[in-house]
Structure of Transporter:
Amino acid sequence: MEDRHSRVLSGKTRLAAPVRSAWSLLNTEIPGFVWAYRFDAATGTGRPLPPTTPREDLIVDEGFVWLHLALSDARVPKFLEGFPDLPEAARATLTDRDNHVVLASDDGVLHGVFTDIERAFDYETNDIGWFRFAASERLIVTARLHPLRCVEAARLAVDRGLAIHGTVGVFAAVVTEFEKVVDALIVEMGDELDRIEDYVFETAPRDERRRLGPVRRTIVRLNRQLRASVALFRRYQRWDEPDPLPTGTVEMAETMADLLGSALQEMQGLQDRARLLHEEIDSKISSETNRHLYILSIMTAFLLPPTLVTGFFGMNTGGLPFAGEHFGTVFAFLLGGMSVWGAWWFLKRVGIL
């Protein structure tokens, strides 16, 4: 009886755990808290901070802090107003819902929106997501609406001991993970295009447009984001404005422009290849359709004369030829056959056959 009672209590505890977890997250010092790390100035290693960390402990004199927030918490905009180092433009970037690549600087703070890949817990997805960031000299705040793959990969790298020596280094780590994901997608989509090509160039033509469509959409969307990202990084690579930037921004922009530039070239190659493959599929389908129409036209030309013959003899009027003949039906069939031969001779004479 006592064991049964303990199992019941154990079951209640397991059911109540998610409720207590959600309650604890709602009562943290940091609204929308996902994770936070404090990085050592000397070693560059990150130490995780608990959700109950007070706001004042996020402002440090040595090293820097990485704070990652979930925008699903409506208290986040009000919470960000308490950071004097974040100008209004940077706070707006963190909380807006605009989904396009942005990179800007205000009052020494680099902020923007960058492309990521959404992360699902029970299946793999290639849907494009967005992470927002604002980086000052001692604090970088990143935010997202949905879980993201590359931001999570950067966090895991920090847990494994990745050394980061500046706030822009966190942004660079996320972009580097994004480039790795893009490289994997390039290989995956290249293999898929190979398989589609094998089907397209088989002896029996097949319509692979339905299969090619999702690949082309992914390529076009990623190509657009990569092109915009490379253009922004190259702009900061040639930065000559008086507005200061966080330490290492120019070097980071140069590295990221080169890194994403090579991925952009490969993606453009895939886009050209997918477009040519789509044109080849259209051409083969058009040729096959024309061939079917040609065969149908020839059959119509062959069958039209005997149809006229049978129609003529089917009028059931007086004075029809062969009406009084014993082999009249045979003569009518012979006349129909001769009309088919006449149609064939005519089509050969004019060069259609």
